[in-house]
Amino acid sequence: GEALRTSGIPREEVFITTKCPGAIGYEATIECADDNLQMLRQFGSKGVQYIDLLLVHFPSTIKPACRFNREAPECKDTPILPAGKQALQDTWRAMEELKTIGVVKAIGLSDYNITNL
């Protein structure tokens, strides 16, 4: 955000891509997009009203305790859990809604393979 503000480059000439962490469900995906926009604005770029590309980072989910402490005993072996079909669908529904209302211009997936689709 601050780099964009201090550069003098118009917002429409910068492409902002960010990610939400995995298949986290509808509400958490909406919150993720909001958090990303708030961070961009907090660091000085009040003109950022949308994200150009929002990606779902991976087709699984992280154990809640592991989000904050990857060294926790329950996170040593398997911090990642497979996401259920409903979580995947709810996450994508939120992405589509964010695009429809103009908060993001494009949506996509990152680190998915054909078996995840």
TrEMBL record:
It comes from the Eukaryota. Keywords: NADP, Oxidoreductase. InterPro entries: AKR, NAD(P)_OxRdtase_dom_sf, NADP_OxRdtase_dom. It holds the Pfam family Aldo_ket_red. Residues 1-115 form the NADP-dependent oxidoreductase domain. GO terms for molecular function: oxidoreductase activity, acting on the CH-OH group of donors, NAD or NADP as acceptor. Belongs to the aldo/keto reductase family. This is NADP-dependent oxidoreductase domain-containing protein.
